Every structure is written in structure tokens, then in C-alpha cells.
Amino acid sequence: MKKLSSTQSNRNVQADGHISLSTYSQDVRRKVSFAEQSTSLSMNTIAGDEQIEQMLDPLESVINTTSNSEHSTFRLQIPFMSNFRIIWLDSNFTKLNADFEYMINQLRHIIDVINPFTDPEVCKDFIRKKIDETIFLIVSNDVEQSIICDIHQISQIHCIFIFCQNKPKKTRWIKNWKKIIGFFMCINTIYERIKQETERHCRDSRTTSISSVDLNRFDTSFMYTLILREILSEMNYDVTAKKQLTQFYREYYYNDPWTQKDIDNFNQNYELHTPIWWYTRFPFLYERLNEALRLQKTKTIIKMGFFIKDLHDQIEQLYRPTTEKITVYRGQGLSYAHFNQLRTIEGGLYFFNCFLSTTADRQVALSRAESSCSIEGSGQIGILFQITLDPTVGTAAPFASLNNVSFYFDREQEILFSTHTVFRIGEIKSIGDYLWQVDLLLVSDDDDDLIKRIEYMRNMTSGTTGWDRLSKLLLKMDKFEEAKEVLEVSLENSNDNDLERLGHRYHLMGQIENSQHNYKQALFFYDKASQIYQTHSSSIHLDMSVIYNDIGSVYKNTEEYTKALEYFQMALDYQDKSNPLAHSNLVLIYNNMAEVHKVMKQYSDALNILEKLSTTYKRSSVLYDYPTMSIIYISKAEVYFDMGSYSEALELFRKVSNMYKCCHPQNFIDIANVYNRIGEIYQRWDKHLKAFAYYEQSLKNYHIAFNILFKQLPMNVSNLAILYSKIAHVHTNMNNYSMALTLYQKSLEILERSFQFKHPDLASTYANIGHIYKNMGKHDKALISYRQAMKIARQSLPENHRHFLIYQKYVTEFQQTFQ
Could you tell me the keywords of this UniProt record (predicted)? Predict the structure, then answer.
């Protein structure tokens, strides 16, 4: 059954001036209603209201030391990721001239982001701000040792190369600093070493993914990429697929003549050998393929679709269940952060997104693990994965022996697993200095948790063709540009006589445009789809209900509230004529209507609508569920909050808090939102101790959600920006302005990389930064931020839009007050 669009823009300007991002206030209302929580992670760390109240006495001393400081009690813990950058610190850059330009160009063949510095302090400040990057540092020998040792402590630094014309006499001091690789007199030597390090880092640090502390759940990145592979394997490919993949490789390795020859060989002779033969023959195939799978580079995965299908199909053909226990091994390196995370979930689930290569030769795998931790400055732990294949446990992923089918034949007794192989973690034990063995056991293919989640994702992306399924999946992953590309191809190849399918494709295109705030284009496609639905849909009532709700959400986002209410009412009318048990649709429609009435300050109308929705659910005992009721309670609580009826709002927020504690404790963002709201209520009542306690709990849950979402960054960076904003808002409430500013700036950086410059969320982030600068007394910077918010809003919103007028008001009032 089709779901209503989630593209609603509930941007709220709160009493403290904080402006939320476009999906900031949707998480609690929307996500639970369609059981999206079934793919989220779980950790039973929620403190109940009674526990929070009990924390107040010891918190008094904490407040005296932290409430006015730059940081809160709970720190962000940011996982390791592979965004590479080279930083070159040399006080004599101006003397290098042409030689320096040559050296920089050489290094750009590996990493194109290179920053030169002459001032060590400026360099250190710059590095500390790059919290999500892996940095290779080149320093000249004339830089003081104390500076190098100070920079060595910064976690973002992966390794350090000391560049000099002549090797100094005193070199023993670097042995105390593991990140320092050594002294180098030739840039080509540094080039080769950085190339080795980046390849090792990509191969090892992102080969595996860890499930949550909840031992029986998978994160959404696993589920989405699993379904993506399924969709690609169902699709039919023609001769152009290989041409497109070949062209991709040519462009990627444009400056590598040897690899270009290998690519020609692959293009001309692909049919002469098996996919496994090609996969094991050329590094350009397995390196780029597994990198794309690990980092979820959707465009690249789509280009490689036909080869992924062929390779997976051959592994399935060769797969033979074992008749006795077999042990295979894999040796590699893991970052300290990744390994520490692994140790906390012994007994939990572990999965590999890539095609996983193992060997039956323990010594071969062990030597690879040892080499990973033996390199000075590698910052890695050597891991020997010992994998048991038990004939009594069916596997959810096929594997195949590569004897006589690999390019290398049986040189390493290799066994290759297909993508998304899931294991349960057994014993973890030390077997040497910086060397550990991790026992893994294949998860059964009849695992109920795995089956339920895969089936749920399959239903979410159901479609008549592989291309339609792919476009739906990409839309749900917020990969709008990729979804648009796939849909445009589908529309070009659509059969004019197959109008119903054409209507659904127009509808999807409208949802993509709506999600990107391109409202005129969204209405254009919605109109084309609705015309087709009215005459050719086999489920006209449900289709029209969905599309009218989507059209209403566009008018709500553009603040044309009368039109929005008209379309929401039409959506309700069609919903009544469709499946009466499709209450999940009713939740979105009623919530949209209530939101419009709330924004228009028609609070009694909003409450009446929500009460009607609540009554409908309570009458339907079969469908009564806590997630849905929590949505209704939160919507009512938000209305009471805006009315200033804080006691009524607090009672409802407490009900929701108890529901989360009992029924779905894994929704960390939702929990954090509720605690944040309760904290705001106590703050309005000047009960600062209680407010502080709830803000601390809110922060704790946001940080857990942050670490979960961070692993999915390539998939959904916009959600990560939203989460930064949410954590920043809590810090603002706690008067931790420096931390709030840092987080808002990080959110801004992500948004600027992810969206067009005109995106409205950029404007709201600039406005929030302006609020922080104002609170810090930095009035010049505050005015600049407010003006930037107004400038972006003018480019992306109509001049009568509420947010544009708010930004304009900020600028005017600020100029009158401080200038």
C-alpha cells in the first residue's frame, strides 16, 4: 500500500528565537507512524522522569561548573571516517615557488584537498575544526619539535611526514611519537607512502560495519544497501551497461596509462572470462566496487549494477553448503575507535557491506593483520577475524570457494562471500601487541529479526519494475538527485499506453521536487499524476488521497494555508472511500491539518482535529498502537505548548516519555526531542535545576543518535546536519554558546556541501548562528549572519513568506538597537 509523502516542512520559530530545519519537527510526528522505527537501533538507556528528578541534587554541583562553560557534561564522540586532507606546514613556502607547485600537483593525484600553512598556531586551529576528516600532515624540518609533538596529539592527524633537504643527525626523538612516519627528502617517496596509507585506510577502516548495542537489530545503512543490491540484481541490463561502466573507469583512472590498458582488456574481453576471474584479476574492479558498497556511493553502485549482479549470481551458482565445520580467516587493520566500538558489543551483530574475501590459511591472514599494526603512525589495531562456517546454521548470504575459478587459482585457498554477510560476534581476545582475534559466526537465514526487517524494506520499495523500486529507494534515502536521474530515464522509456505506471512515476517526481523545496515543479508533476489517477488508476481513492495530501503539504510549506486545508480535506474525503483500516494515512492528513491550524493560531480547531484522530484510533482496538498514540499526544502537546498551556503540555510529554521507555526505547532522537521540550517547560517556569536535568538527558540521547547516524553519513548527510542543529539548540538552552556555535557551523558546512545555495535550511541555520553571536555579545557577527539569512531567504522564499519576514525583522531590530 502506498504511503503518504513525508515531505512536510514544519519549520517552527520557537519562543527563544531558534528556527528549526525543514525536518526538525517531523521526526516525532511522522517517523513512528509507518513503523520506521523497526530499522532503527536500540539501547535501553532512557532515564525515566522519576530518575531524572532524583538526579537533581547531585546536578547542583555540576551546574556550578558546567552551565556557564563552553561544553556540556556530555561530549560528542565522533567516529573515524575517510574524508582525506593533506596539510603542509612550512615557514618558507614563498621560497619554494615552482618546486612547491610541482610537489602539490603530484600529491593532488592522490588527495585533491591540500592546505598550506606557515603559522603553526593557525594550522593547529584549522586541524581541530576538521573533526570528521583524516589528515596527512607534512611539516618542514625547521618546525620546532614541540609544535610537531603538540599537533601529534590531535586525533584527526593520521600520520606525519617530516620533509627536509638533508636528513638531520638527531632522529631518535621521533620514536616516541608513533604518528611520525619519518624524514623524507623526496616528495615522490611521500607520495607513494600516502598512497599506500589511503589505500590501506579505505580497504581496512571501512570494510566492516558494526550493529548497535541492541544485539538483534541492524542499522538502516545495511538495510538500504541490501535492498539496493536486490533491486540491481533483478534488473535487466543491455550492452550499454558495460559501456557506461567502462567509461566511468576511464574517467576515474584518466591519468593512469597502465590501468587504462586493463580497462580496455575488460571492455573487449569481458565475455571470455567469469565475473570472479575479472574481480580477482584487476584491482580497479574490486577496489572501486567495494569502496562504493562500503561508502554507499549510490551513483557508482548503479553504474556497477550489471557487474554486481553477475558477480553475485556466480557466487550463488558456486555456493555449496558445508557438511562439516570449516574455519576461514581475514586479517586487516581497524582504527582504535572502530575496535573499541567492536569490543563493547561482544555477542552482537557485525556485517560486511562489501564482497568479503577470506582465506583458509590462518598464517596468510595473520601476517596481514600483523602488517596493519606494525607500521609506525598507522593508528590501527591488527585484527584476525576467525570465521566459523557451521553446517547446522543456514546462512543468509552465499559464499564460494575460488579454487580453479579465481585468476590466482588456489594460491590462498580463498573463499569469497557475497555482500551484506552478517555475523554474530564471539570471543574477542588479545594475541599480541596491538593484535587481536575476533571470532565470528554466520547468522542463520531464518533469523526472525533479519527476515522481518528485509520484508519491511521490500514492501516499502515495492514497484512494478526494478527501476521504479530503485527510484523509491533513493527517495527514501534522501538521494534526490540520483532518484531524479533514474526517474527521468524511466519516464523517457515509459509506454504511453501504460498510463497508471506513468502516473506513479510523475507522482514520485513530484515528491522529489517537493523534498527539494522546488514547489512549482512539484505541483506541476502532482497535477500530471492526479489527472492520470482520476481516469486510469486501479486504486483511485487511495492514490488520490495520497496525492491530495502531498499537494496540501506543498501549500502548507508555501504558507498558502487556505489552499492547504482544502486539499487536506479532499485527501480525507478520498481516504474515507478507500480502505477504512488505512489509518496510517489518516495520521499524516490530520496532523497536517492540525499543524496548519496551529501555525494560524487557531488552537481550538487544531485540538479538535487531534481529538477526533485520537477517538478514531481508540475505537479501532485492532490497530491501536503506542507509536501512533505517541504521535497524537506529541501533536497535542505542541499545540498546548504554543498556547502557553504548559501544564497540559507537560502531562502529554510525560505520557509520551513513558511510552518510549516501555515500547520503543531505540528512538533516541524522538526521546531527545521530548526531554528537550520538557526542559523548555521547566525553564519557562524558572525551575532551572529540573530544566538542566532534562536538557542533559536530551543531550545524552542526541549524542547516541549522532554516533549511529554518523556511520550512515554518505547516505543521509542532511539528517546529520539536522542532528547537529538539534544538539546545538540544547546547548543554547544550557547557555553553552561556544559549543552551540561550533555545532551550528558544522551543520552549515554540511548543508552547503549537500544542497544548492538557495536552500531555506541554510537561511534558518544562519539565523540561529546570529542568535548565538547576539547572546555572546558579538554584535557585528550577529548582524552579518542575520543579513545572510535574509539574503538566502530572498532567493528561495516568496517575500511574504513568514520566515523571510522574520529574518528581515531581525536585521531591522538589530540595526536599530546596536547601531
Answer: Repeat, TPR repeat
Going 490 to 491 to 493 to 499, the CA torsion angle's sign is positive
Looking at the structure, tell me whether residues 299 and 326 fall in a common domain: no
* Residue from 283, 276, 322 nearest 418 by CA: 276
- Strand, coil or helix: 529: helix
pLDDT digits (tens, 9 = 90+) for 565-595: 999 999 998 888 876 545 567 888 999 999 9
Distance separating alpha carbons of residues 719 and 219, to the nearest angstrom:
15
160: exposed, middle or buried (Cβ count in 10 Å: 0-12, 13-18, 19+): buried
Examine the domain organization and report whether 309 and 330 are in the same domain. Answer: no
| More reliable by pLDDT, 377 or 817 | 817
C-alpha cell recorded at residue 655: 505520557
The CA distance from 508 to 480, in Å, is 11
Do 270 and 374 lie in one domain? The reply is no
Q: What is the largest CA-CA distance in the chain?
A: 87
Q: Which amino acid is at 613?
A: L
425 DSSP β-pair partners: 440
Higher pLDDT: 777 or 10? It is: 777
Q: Do 174 and 270 belong together in one domain?
A: no
The burial of 688, by beta-carbon neighbours within 10 Å (0-12 exposed, 13-18 middle, 19 or more buried), is given as: middle
Record the cell numbers describing residue 133, joined without a space.
576528516
What CA–CA distance (Å, rounded) separates 772 from 750? 19
Per the domain annotation, does 268 fall within a domain? yes
Q: Tell me how far apart the alpha carbons of residues 667 and 630 are, in angstroms, rounded to a whole number.
A: 12
Which residues, in sequence order, are bridge partners of residue 89? 117, 139
Looking at the structure, tell me whether residues 329 and 390 fall in a common domain. Answer: yes
Note whether 431 and 339 are same-domain residues: yes
pLDDT tens for each residue of 468-519: 777 887 787 777 887 888 788 778 777 777 788 888 899 999 999 998 888 9
d(C-alpha 647, C-alpha 500), whole Å: 50
Tell me the sheet residues that pair with 547.
none
Residue pair 438/353 in contact by the 8 Å Cβ criterion: no
**In the chain, % of residues over pLDDT 70:** 74
pLDDT of residue 755: 55
* Domain carrying residue 377: 321-445
Q: Average per-residue pLDDT in the chain?
A: 76
Cα first-last separation, the chain: 58
Q: What pLDDT is stored for residue 157 in this prediction?
A: 82
Last residue of a domain, one of 264, 288, 317: 317
**Cβ–Cβ under 8 Å, residues 674 and 28:** yes
What does DSSP say about strands 114-117 and 84-89: parallel, antiparallel, or unpaired? parallel
Q: How many domains does the chain have?
A: 3
Alpha-carbon distances, residue 204 vs 425, 495, 695 (angstroms): 18, 46, 38
CB 206 within 8 A of CB 295: yes
Cα–Cα distance for residue pair 395/109, rounded to 1 Å: 42
Residue 30 in domain: no
For residues 443, 449, 451 and 456, what is the CA-based torsion angle, rounded to 10 degrees?
-140
- Taking only the tens place, the pLDDT of each residue in 626-645 is 677 888 899 999 999 999 99
Q: Are residues 148 and 254 in the same domain?
A: no
Give CA separation, 269 vs 284, 349, 393, 674, in Å. Answer: 16, 40, 39, 60
Better-scored residue on pLDDT, 451 or 748: 748
